[in-house]
Each structure stands twice: as C-alpha cells, then as structure tokens.
Amino acid sequence: MEGGPGGKSVNGSDPAPSLSLFTYVPFWTHDTLQGVLAWIPDLLIASEAQLRDVTAVLSGQGHRQLDLMRARLLDAVHALYLHDGATLGEAPPILPPAFRGLAEIDSPISPDLLASAIAWCWTKLSRLRLVDRRLIQPVQSEVAIENAYYEQVLASIYNHFRPRSARFQACLRRLAMEEARGKDVLEVGVGTGGIATVVAPSARRFLGVDVSHAMIAEGMREGGYFGVPICADAMQLPVREASVDLVLEHEAFCFLDEPLLGLGESLRVLRPGGRLVRLVSRAREPEMASSLTAQFHRELARRGAGPVPIWGKGADQRINEHLVSTGLDSTGRKLDSWVEQRTLGFYIDRIANRAFPYLQRLPVEVMHAALEAAMQELGLKDQCQRRLTEGRSLESWTTEIPE
Ligand SMILES: C[S@@+](CC[C@H](N)C(=O)[O-])C[C@H]1O[C@@H](n2cnc3c(N)ncnc32)[C@H](O)[C@@H]1O
Q: 103 alpha carbon to ligand 1 midpoint, in Å?
C-alpha cells in the first residue's frame, strides 16, 4: 500500500519491508490484455465444443483429447491467473486449489475439472471486461472458485489474525462522525464487517458488498453487520448510478483483478458531491517478524514453491495517479499512528494458520516444512513468548465528486 505522487502527500513513508523473494504480480497492461484476448476465447469455445463431444464418448480417443485439452487449458488458466500473458510457461507451482489437478499430469483428468477451468476462464475474462458477462452461463463451480482468495478457512480465522486496536477503532468512530453521519454509505469489500460494525450505525443507510460468501457468512455469524451485505463483485457493482453519498474501502481494491475497474464503479455510484474514502493501513513489522517471513520465503523457494506471487502492490499509487489524470484529485490524511505489542508466537501462528490469501494456495506440507526450517535457522523455536513492537498507522484518501 503506498501513498503516491498522484495525490497530496501525507507524512510518513511506506514502512513495508521489501522482500525480494516475493514476485509482485503486475497489473494488466493493454498489450497483455490484447495478447490474452487473441487466443483464450477461441480456445475456450473450441474446448467447450470438444468437451461436449468427448464426454459423449469417454472411451477410446476420449482420454487423449482430454489430456491435450488439459495442457492448453492449463496455459490459459496460468496466463489469466498470473495476470500476465507474458509469463506463460514460467508459472510457479501455485494454482487455485481447484485447478491443481490440471497440472498433475499423472493423475486422471475429469471432464468436470476441465469444464470448471473453462468456466473460470470465462468469468475472469468477463471480470476484466474482455467478454460480456451476460453471454456466460452461470456454473455451479464458479462461486467456489471466485471465493478462492477469501474462502471458508481464511474467513474463519480472519478476525483473529487482524486484531483491531483501540486506536484503530477510535479512527473509525471519528470517520463515522465526520463522513458517514446521516449518509447513504456503501462499503466495497466489506469482509467480516470490521469497518462496517463501527461506521454503519452512524449512516442513514449502509450497504456492504463483498465477493466472498465465506467472509460475509463469517461476518453474519459474528453479528458484525448493520443491515445485510450483498455478495457481488466490486468491479461490477449491482448499485444504481449516483445513488450513494459515501463509498468506503479498506484493503479491498488491491485484491481486484483490475483495481481501476473497482475505482470506476465506486465513482459511478456516487452522487454529485459524494465522496470516496479509501482507508490505507500501514504496518511496520518488528525486525524479528520480517526476518522470519523472509527466511520462510527462502525456504519455500528452496522447496520449489517460490517465489510466491503477491497481488496488489502499487494499487493505491496507481489509483491516485489515475484520479489525477482524470482531473479528480485525492487528498491524503494521516488519521493516527501508534504501536501495538504482539508476541513472536502471533507472527508464527499467522503463517502456520495460513492467514493470508497467498498462503492458502501453497501445498500445506511444503509450507509447514518451510516454516519449521525458517524458525530453526533463525533460532526462534523457544522464543514464542517474546514480546515485539509493531508500528501501525491509518490514512484516509478522499476523492470528491464535483457537484
Ligand atoms: C483484506 S479483506 C478486507 C475486509 C474489510 N474491508 C476489512 O477491512 O476488514 C479484503 C476483502 O476484499 C474482498 N474482495 C476481494 N475481491 C473482491 C471483489 N472483486 N469484489 C468485492 N470484494 C472483493 C475479499 O473477499 C475480502 O473480504
């Protein structure tokens, strides 16, 4: 998360440690979009036709055809999944769990897996606005796959590994009073309701939107919402134009396939004079915790499971720059900065429990072996109770729609 040259500057630099072992997935460029468009839709159409044929005659030549199709669909999933057609063939061994079977050449291939890969590719193309979503038949597997970032396991531990301190909550209460009071408010990427719980009671009406059923269900279970959130894509909001006074966002745009599409949708639904408020959390992890992460990533790489692709780097800066280029400025403000105490055990558990979307995609045995080795290497095994200090801050970036 970065404040960028596009908006007015706020005090404080980006404290995130730079870990060269991460691969930051690039955002789509015009060229990569065109590259993907040149071959994937045709492949999908041909595969669908072939699949209908092959499933009818699943004997004899059928399996060979399925295997060929598997290899080509694997290319398509990789190209779309890694957000960059250019990296084809160099994909790290991490695919959405639902698609690992595509890469396991020795295991039998099922027509269902191929059908869900085809469906996923269509969905992804439509979310990138490369094909018209209305032309796509809804498929059963789509929901499960769309939830892959924030699926059930991650949703159930999300709140535990994102403790919200009293200082953070105080910022939200102030924001609720200053920005949300008496307004029609929409929060994109509402998750388990951490922000909504505090802000929504001040609003006239509040609507939370999130693409993950699992996160919404977790929030409902915990009673974290005010009103009922809806499950929808921030890049295609099912909300009328100019119908909202305030759009709130915290750590959601960076997870979108294309953050600028989410930005465009948020601006579309705002009334004249309405405001988009993006909250940006920053954390300066204690040195011991960032050494652990770095060593863990080295150990993953040593076991053939790295570098690990991370989404979203630079999303805030890109959004700020885009806003400036369209004549809409954004104003940054540091709301507060503080320190939080955590034990080293918290950071270890956070990795062990796979509390980040990218960790959900690693083979669990490899991940645990890498963590064990990292702790051994750094001599951290007996230090779980050690108390560490983490620096945190919260900023708001506000964009106002002209009257
Ligand atoms: C890090 S969580 C943040 C949740 C919440 N804003 C908070 O601060 O607790 C990111 C959320 O963005 C949601 N998300 C990811 N992609 C989305 C999309 N395309 N449309 C709507 N929500 C999305 C995820 O499901 C997840 O709940």
A: 28
Structural tokens at position 274: 């309405």
How far is 166 from 181, CA to CA, in rounded Å? 21
Query: How many CB atoms are located within 10 Å of the residue 247 CB?
Result: 28
> What residues are paired with 331 via a beta bridge?
398
78 sits in which H/E element: helix 62-81
For the record, the structure tokens of 340 come out as 């939080």
Return the sign of the alpha-carbon dihedral for residues 185, 186, 190, 192: positive
- Rounded to whole angstroms, the Cα distance separating 194 from 279 reads 13
Q: Is the CB of 215 under 6 A from ligand 1?
A: yes
CA separation for the pair 192, 195 (Å, rounded) = 9
Sign of CA dihedral 105, 108, 111, 116: negative
Predicted local distance difference test score (pLDDT) of residue 90: 54
Q: Which residues are paired to 205 by β-bridges?
A: 184
Task: Give the global pTM.
Answer: 0.82
Over residues 226-244, the pLDDT tens digits come to: 667 888 889 888 899 999 9
Give the SS3 label for residue 244.
strand
Mutate to test the pocket of ligand 1, among 159, 165, 171, 212 (most ligand atoms within 8 A of CB): 212
How far apart (Å, rounded) are the C-alpha atoms in residues 25 and 311?
Answer: 5
